[in-house]
Amino acid sequence: MDWFRRQITRALAAVLLVGTPLARAQQAPQSPHIGYVYPAGAKQGATLDVSVGGQYLPGTSAAYLSGDGVRVSVVKYHKQLTQGEVSRLRNKLDEARQRLEEQAKKNVAPGKRPEYLTRERIAREAGVTEEELQAIEEFRKRMADPKRQPNPQIEEQVSVRLTIDPAAEPNTRELRLRTPLGLTNPVRFEVSPYNEVRETEPNDTLPDVSAGSRLPCVINGQVMPGDVDRFTFTAKKGAHIVAALRGRALVPYLADAVPGWFQAVLAVYDKSGKELAYVDDYEHRPDPILRMVIPADGQYTLVVRDAIYRGREDFVYRVYLGEIPFVSSVFPPGIRRGTSTSVRLRGWNLPAITLNLTTEKEGLRPLALPPGTLCPPDLRYQVSDMPHAAEKEPNDNASKAQNVTLPVVVNGVIERAGDLDIVQFAGRKGQRIVADLWARRLGSPLDSNIVLIDAKGERIAVSDDVEDRSAGWVTHHA
Questions:
Q1: What are the residue ranges of CATH 2.60.120.380 in the chain?
Q2: 360/380 Cα distance (integer angstroms)
Q3: Longest Cα–Cα distance in the chain
Q4: Lowest model confidence (mean pLDDT) among 7-16, 34-43, 468-477
Q5: Range list of β-strands (E), 247-361
Q6: What's the CATH number for 194-324?
Q7: Residue 24 and residue 314: Cα distance in Å, rounded?
Q8: What is 10-74 written as a DSSP string?
Q9: How far apart are CA 425 and CA 321, in angstroms?
Q10: pLDDT of residue 25
């Protein structure tokens, strides 16, 4: 028995010795993280304070926003109190109240009431600051709200002041914080040329009127659990209204949510409550874009919510609302470097249907659209050194296949259901070729498929849904 006890003791000692470095490693400082910024955008020329939510942010000393024309400064760090911290503060307040009450009873004159003790005096006696009192009240409200779901990853907040120059370029930028533990990850922030409004709660039943007749504008909001945000706007008959929501475009992934992003829904109702339009996505993208022609002069209501009524502070969104220019596609999607190319645009409210593209640099390039013109955030064009050719219809069967010479980039469009684009080329025995189809990676909704057929009509190879590890935003590699 003594031998057995000695072996157990040695084993426990070994576990403790091995476990000690692990425990120390688990207590090591964590990397600072930010999960959202709200509001996630502002108009050129604006000065505003934004809230940045994250974790491990004490001692934040600076903030940085990419691009020119914006000054950034840290205003204040806010940390939500834990249950233990609230209990300690309440105990201090209770002890201070008891001391003051005992003193008041001793000093009260016969037949008189004891002096009324104000909250401020009790807090001063307890050494509790006004900020701590406010934090206790916020904790009480948070615990009393059955919808609110605590999440340590976004519980801390830092207030940041932004001063945006009127000439600052409207685009999407990246915001970071500097802490004693290092720089945080970036979160997206947009500078726009449009009027900006923030939602005013409660607006679940009675709509928020902040948008009103100020179209075009950008609505900034947050969706909490079970939340439904309603906004009224006024529009004229025949107006081509675009409501483009940015949700996943701002916060691409939520690690502890299913699906892993804010799955927004947009709907428009007339004054009688009739639903006129509804959308919960745009093509293959989770962020919805609603386009409609207004049937009559009057007031309409825009509704924003999560598809399954989830919500949290990082369910941040921006809705571009109004007769806003919107580009849905560009053709050709690829051009040869060093050439002068004008491409065709498709969409709504476009002042022009062509655009001249720059071709100096090889690779994926964003569209250089006029300020205020929207497009899906993943819409791109590709610049390469290879010769380019446009598909020529009809080319739906082998007898009408389009002849090309390798190497080549073929730009085409699947224009209708059942459409096939067939090209043929001369190959040599043992020759290695690559057919790399770019569609979803350029922002196209096409779910593509490539089939290689020999001169006898027999299939040699088929390719479908090949993952491109460099395209991390693409959730389905079509």
A1: 194-324
A2: 15
A3: 115
A4: 7-16
A5: 264-269, 275-279, 289-293, 298-306, 316-322, 326-331, 334-336, 341-348, 354-357
A6: 2.60.120.380
A7: 31
A8: HHHHHHHHHHHHHHHHHTSPPPPEEEEEES-EEETT-EEEEEEEEES-TT--EEEESSSSEEEEE
A9: 48
A10: 44
- In the chain, the percentage of residues whose pLDDT exceeds 90 is 63
- Is omega for the bond preceding 202 within 30 degrees of 0, making it cis? yes
Amino acid (1-letter code) at residue 133: L
Cα(54)–Cα(358) distance, rounded to whole angstroms?
39
Rounded-to-integer distance, Cα 473 and Cα 364, Å: 14
- Which pLDDT score, from 0 to 100, does residue 23 have? 43
pLDDT in tens, 185-204: 999 999 999 999 999 888 88
**Which segments of 176-262 does DSSP mark as H helices, in order?**
none
Q: How confident is the model at residue 237 (pLDDT cuts 50, 70, 90)?
A: very high
Which position has the token pair 């926003």?
A: 65
Two tokens, residue 235: 């529009």
- Residues 382-425 pLDDT 10s: 999 999 999 999 999 888 999 999 999 999 999 999 999 999 99
pLDDT at 143 over 80: no
- What are the residues whose beta carbons fall under 8 Å from the beta carbon of 366, sequence distance 6 or more? 379, 380
